[in-house]
Specification:
Strand order of the largest sheet of chain A: 1-3-4-5-6-7-8-9-10-11-12-13-14-15-16-17
Largest interface: A-B, 30 and 38 residues
Order of helices and strands of chain A: EEEEEEHEEEEEEEEEEE
Distance between the termini of chain A: 20 Å
Number of helices of chain A: 1
CATH class of chain A: Mainly Beta
Number of strands of chain A: 17
Oligomer: homotrimer
Strand content of chain A: over 45%
């Protein structure tokens, strides 16, 4: 019997989403954390060297379906060598540009308040917004006085939207944590440009009574830009934690077809509470409201279609769920 | 390492099915129980409250394929909170109308004698005949003097055939067990009707030398009806159990297109033996014969096409298999 | 908690393949062993009888995808009864004609040097080149003085390319191992013939300082033939093993369309080294060059398209990888 750790999360929620005047009630999930089943292990090779693997499958509790129909091990599929030099990690994994903002979204990029809805690839076919296939990453070791860094590369394998180069540097000391990440993805060219670029500065400070966390990011491709600012707070309250965030998304530039995106701005305000029944099990509720400016079409996930033309209709969502870890 | 139970069934069988004059020999499976791999766990939250999860994947041993190409965790994918109040269970699971008859089929709705072949949705798109996605169920606690009940609800999520409401009440005392279940599914309308309804009364009585078990059910949609009566017996015999059942299916009414279904009746007679090599491992054989009236086209699963037009051809099947649980 | 063994392999590699003038760099895998996750168990039934199951899923570490999109448990899905009589094994598994050559490929039919690229089904739809669905196999017990044999059968289930009958006899004593395997698959008929036949003679001899291993095989269908000879050597060297092989593939006969295949010959030379970091973890590198004669189109897997018309362009590949077992 080998030394394998089996782990997972099951997260299910009742969700109600209103897009303009359309509403949808559903049994949904992934409101606090994404449902998953994983297997991981580490082998000590001696001399400080270790080999490890990590396989993580995402699924939807409400229907029993895979999160990603094409990739069973969609969340992570990696082999690592680690030691005093740090870690070399190979396979499908998060991109540093994703963790660079997701680590500083107080809602953990999950549920109705998910900040990921504003993480635009600007119409490109970049397949690196969250994770990348074929990723080769190096992580610095943990003993650099609070400093940590990651560089990642993925080859194109002759498929547009796959080639990625990125990195992240971060520093943590006591209550403070700051991070800067940058990445670029080679996409199908438009207007002579084939690089989708993303930069994000994130940080958090724990005051004890409350923890402030947030980021500012900028995505750029050809003439298009999207800037996002996210500021959140989490406050320990009773047997749980109160969470709130405010996000602004500011689009600019013209598409290759000449459409002006300046009016595609939006903001979101969200509030939630997590009540811990134990370390592994929690009840939670979140409410989020996306205010779309005239041309913007951001929506709370798991909802009905936005009315078309949208003309600045809002998207509102609330969920109430149960998250259990094992 | 978390407290997770890994469990499963592997069931493989040689099967021979004859439909009219067409025959098919196959390596098949699921003749005694459905093959599956599952993970489940329970956490004690204190104060009598428990959280639990259950993930169960169905597959075919003969080919290594998923039972349900679209849902990996097709058999069950649920999170539960349970306590003195009973159990609240959320996710994909059996419907109470399915367990309401399946619990009283002496062949456990598996193999050549499976009673499920007569469980008609009357041409509707009801996706609730066996299980339902997005199900919210409440189960009564186990200390109600033999009485138990379940109510279940699934939202439509704007998809026809998904919205379900149903429930089941049952009573068990010593050798006796009786159950009544009712459910309705909202389907694509026909002839002004959008409710597919199913009601089933089941029961069993254990005389010691033999256990009688059976049910009567009625499915109804617009002008169509299907009534099924199933009576079975199981007799402990040597290191195993002898099983036999007789099923009558009685169709009535006209389809929206005006076709008369009155002649689509059928009956099935089946006999089988399960030889236990251990508590976990058994050899089994079953033979079943479906006698189709003129317009009926019921068949033993895993067989060749029925001749067309069928004109009352029979379907006969036999399997011989091995079931191993872990 | 049941007595189940969880096991697996994660194998990832950087690979560079050149086909004619086309090149492709990739993060790939399965260079030393195929990545897999499996569950298996054995139950002692008493009296020397045992029941067992084996479920084995193949995947690609680089992308998290299934190896076989249609079959999750593509590598093996079997139930067994075993005892003094040998083993009866039912389900999806290797064919004896596959293990009959794969056991004698010094590169284990994996990676850039994989001998499987020459294992032609001669344009038929035989689905038995590596594994067979619905396989019923008998294996002799292990106490026959070095002699072992397997016979296997799979029914057609009315699908061309599925019906298989084959067997293998082998003898091992000290440093010597020899094996003869034969199988035939019933395929869609062409030129009045519906049997694809494959025969292979393999052997190995361990001299201590080096182990020689190889096989000769012949595939035959209607007027077509493919003969393959593979000779390999493995030499313990330092903390690892040096591997080299030379393969010749000799095509002959005409296709049903009248095309002459005489010129579709090829040979491959390959060299590799496996460096063991532990019993479970290894670094490896392999380089292979396929020399295609005028009409041949054999390629190292995971590469770009061959130029078309190919006109005898070569395929060259090199990988450098990490294999971890658990």
């Amino acid at each position: 019997q080998s030394n394998v750790t089996l782990f997972g999360v099951v997260d299910v929620a009742a969700r109600h989403v209103k897009n303009g005047d359309n509403t949808l009630r559903s049994l949904s999930g992934n409101g606090l954390n994404s449902s998953r089943l994983g297997f991981r292990g580490v082998e000590d090779l001696g001399g400080g060297l270790k080999a490890g693997f990590w396989l993580e499958h995402g699924f939807n509790v409400d229907t029993g379906t895979q999160s990603d129909a094409a990739r069973f091990w969609n969340r992570r599929s990696t082999v690592s060598l680690s030691g005093g030099f740090g870690e070399l990690r190979l396979g499908r994994d998060f991109t540093p540009t994703y963790t660079g903002f997701a680590d500083y979204d107080v809602f953990g990029t999950n549920g109705v308040a998910d900040a990921g809805k504003f993480n635009s690839v600007l119409g490109t076919n970049a397949d690196t917004a969250t994770r990348s296939d074929n990723e080769v990453s190096y992580f610095t070791p943990g003993n650099l006085g609070g400093f940590r860094a990651q560089v990642s590369f993925a080859p194109s394998e002759k498929v547009a939207g796959k080639k990625y180069m990125g990195g992240r540097v971060a520093y943590g000391a006591g209550p403070l944590d700051v991070s800067l990440a940058y990445g670029q993805t080679t996409v199908t060219p438009s207007a002579g440009e084939d690089k989708y670029k993303f930069v994000v500065l994130g940080g958090s400070y724990d005051f004890g009574v409350a923890k402030l966390t947030g980021y500012v990011s900028q995505a750029e491709f050809a003439n298009l830009e999207m800037q996002v600012a996210n500021i959140g707070v989490q406050v320990p309250l009773g047997q749980g934690i109160l969470r709130a965030s405010y996000i602004r998304a500011d689009a600019s530039g013209r598409t290759a077809a000449g459409a002006n995106t300046e009016n595609n701005d939006a903001n979101q305000i969200a509030l939630g509470y997590v009540y811990n029944l134990s370390k592994r099990t929690a009840l939670y509720t979140t409410v989020a409201r996306v205010n779309n400016k005239a041309g913007a079409t951001f929506v709370v996930s798991g909802g009905p279609a936005l009315p078309s033309p949208n003309n600045g209709k809002d998207s509102t969502g609330v969920d109430f769920g149960l998250r259990h870890s094992f």
